[in-house]
């Protein structure tokens, strides 16, 4: 039996889609263009969020496997880069929002109150999937927790609160899954379950720290050369000393509780290894993954910052419709809502390729020693 020929309008559901920009009214004919644009941009962003969630789940599932096949990493990188791009798309809509003036927005703003983007369940799902923990969240204000704001005004569960509650149960997060994968990375050829693994990881870290200290000494000398006063020289020396000690404390995971130290140190050593020795064939794709993760988190931070600048331009520093401190709250989220701290931190301690110590087990990464 031949099927009915598909039409564009049926497949894309164009009429359904165009009937959705009326806000609380029957249709959008009585609304100002500004308000229809305001609703449409939010809807487009929610659709980008939907795609981002699907990609995040796929990438997370891949890294949650007990063994991640090498060939799967290119698909993971594609997914991660797509999510970053989705956030860049969403950020670009804020410029369109800025074609509206403060007074244009004030004309319909009261209608929204106390609703707010703070109630975007999909945004919360993305944060949760990435690995933002509840304890990291900045309190909004009168609603209490971010979760309470997702409930109906009478305190009953809503589609939004149910969606987020389900996501909170959905573990591991991308951060946890990637950490687990990094943890299993051979460090200078040593696997985590090898008897002498701890000593071999420590030897790798010591070698790296020595090379890092050499690089800092070199940079310090160059900086001191241009210093005008003894006080400046002393300040610079102190700064480089702190950097050296910070690198050692970071790679030895001195900031983590004793029982987690070995695991964290192994993850951080893996990051240093992947970034530093990226030319080795087996580290090429892992390095792309790490770079993608930075790109993704950076795109998310840029989205938060761009949103905050648009909000400042439109409503200044007044209280948000959701009851937060408005721009001050949004700026704090841009500053503090980071998930992949170690991936960023490793950038501070990377060194020149020429300064890297030679690996003792280079062949473990797919090339013959000495090649
Ligand atoms: C005229 C345009 C907009 C204004 C004035 C505005 C203002 C605000 C303010 C003041 C907040 C802080 C919470 C509150 O007290 O309400 C907020 C939160 C938020 N807005 Fe917007 N917004 C606008 C457009 C958008 C758009 C287009 C999106 C895209 C989805 C968006 C997404 C969000 C999200 C996700 C939050 C929660 C942020 C967080 O808690 O981390 N906003 N917005």
Any overview of this molecule?
- There is one protein chain.
- With 371 residues, the chain is mainly alpha-helical.
- The longest helix is centred in the last third of the chain and has 35 residues, at 281-315.
- The protein has helices at 8-12, 14-18, 33-63, 72-97, 102-112, 121-130, 159-169, 174-183, 197-225, 230-251, 258-276, 281-315, 327-336, 341-348.
- It is globular.
- It has 14 helices and no strands.
- Helix content is 63%, strand content 0%.
- It has a single domain (30-365), classed as Methane Monooxygenase Hydroxylase, Chain G, domain 1.
- Helix 11 (258-276) packs across helix 12.
- The mean pLDDT is 94.
- It starts with 7 loop residues before the first helix and ends in a 23-residue tail after the last helix.
- The chain binds protoporphyrin IX containing FE (HEM).
- Residues 38, 41-42, 45, 97, 105, 116-118, 120, 123, 307, 311, 314-315, 320-324, 326, 329-330, 333 line the site of protoporphyrin IX containing FE (HEM).
What is the strand and helix layout of this fold?
Blueprint: H1 8-12, H2 14-18, H3 33-63, H4 72-97, H5 102-112, H6 121-130, H7 159-169, H8 174-183, H9 197-225, H10 230-251, H11 258-276, H12 281-315, H13 327-336, H14 341-348
The structure holds protoporphyrin IX containing FE.
Protoporphyrin IX containing FE binds at residues 38, 41-42, 45, 97, 105, 116-118, 120, 123, 307, 311, 314-315, 320-324, 326, 329-330, 333.
């Amino acid at each position: 039996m031949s099927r009915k020929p598909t039409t564009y309008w049926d497949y894309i559901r164009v009429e359904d889609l165009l009937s959705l920009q009326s806000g609380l009214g029957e249709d959008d004919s009585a609304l100002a263009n500004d308000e229809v644009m305001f609703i449409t941009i939010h809807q487009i962003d929610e659709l980008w969020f939907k795609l981002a969630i699907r990609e995040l789940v796929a990438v997370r599932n891949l890294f949650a496997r007990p063994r991640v096949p090498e060939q799967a990493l290119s698909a993971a990188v594609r997914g991660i880069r797509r999510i970053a791009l989705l956030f860049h798309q969403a950020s670009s809509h804020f410029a369109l929002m800025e074609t509206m003036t403060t007074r244009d927005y004030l004309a319909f703003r009261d209608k929204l109150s106390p609703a707010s983007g703070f109630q975007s369940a999909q945004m919360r799902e993305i944060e949760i999937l990435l690995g933002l923990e509840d304890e990291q969240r900045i309190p909004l204000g009168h609603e209490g927790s971010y979760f309470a704001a997702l409930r109906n005004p009478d305190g009953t569960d809503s589609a939004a609160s149910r969606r987020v509650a389900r996501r909170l149960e959905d573990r591991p997060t991308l951060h946890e899954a990637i950490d687990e994968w990094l943890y299993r990375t051979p460090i200078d050829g040593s696997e985590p379950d090898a008897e002498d693994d701890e000593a071999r990881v420590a030897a790798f870290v010591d070698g790296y720290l020595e090379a890092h200290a050499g690089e800092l000494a070199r940079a310090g000398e160059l900086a001191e050369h241009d210093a005008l006063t003894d006080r400046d020289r002393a300040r610079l020396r102190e700064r480089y000393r702190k950097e050296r000690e910070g690198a050692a404390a970071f790679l030895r995971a001195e900031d983590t509780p004793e029982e987690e130290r070995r695991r964290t140190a192994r993850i951080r050593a893996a990051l240093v290894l992947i970034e530093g020795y990226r030319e080795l064939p087996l580290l090429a794709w892992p390095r792309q993954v790490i770079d993608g993760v930075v790109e993704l988190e950076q795109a998310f931070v840029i989205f938060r910052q761009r949103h905050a600048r648009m909000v400042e331009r439109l409503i200044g520093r007044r209280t948000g419709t959701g009851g937060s401190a408005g721009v001050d709250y949004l700026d704090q989220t841009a500053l503090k809502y980071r998930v992949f701290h170690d991936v960023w931190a490793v950038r501070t301690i990377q060194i020149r390729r020429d300064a890297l110590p030679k690996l003792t087990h280079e062949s473990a990464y797919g090339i013959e020693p000495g090649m």
